[in-house]
Amino acid sequence: MTERVYRASLRSMGIWFGAVACTAIAAFLGLRVDSPNTGLITLGLTFAAYAILARFVSGANWLDARSALLLAWGGGMVAWGPMMAAQLERLSHAHLVQEGLVRATIQQQILPYACIALAGIMTAKLLYLVTGNSVVFTRTLLATMVAIVMMVFPQFGESSGPAAIVAWNAIVAASLCVWAISRAAKPTTACRHCGKDVKELSSPVCTSCGHELHQASPRRDALSVLASAAAPVGSVVSQTIASGSLLPRRNPFL
Question: Is-above-0.85 flag for pTM?
Answer without folding.
Answer: no
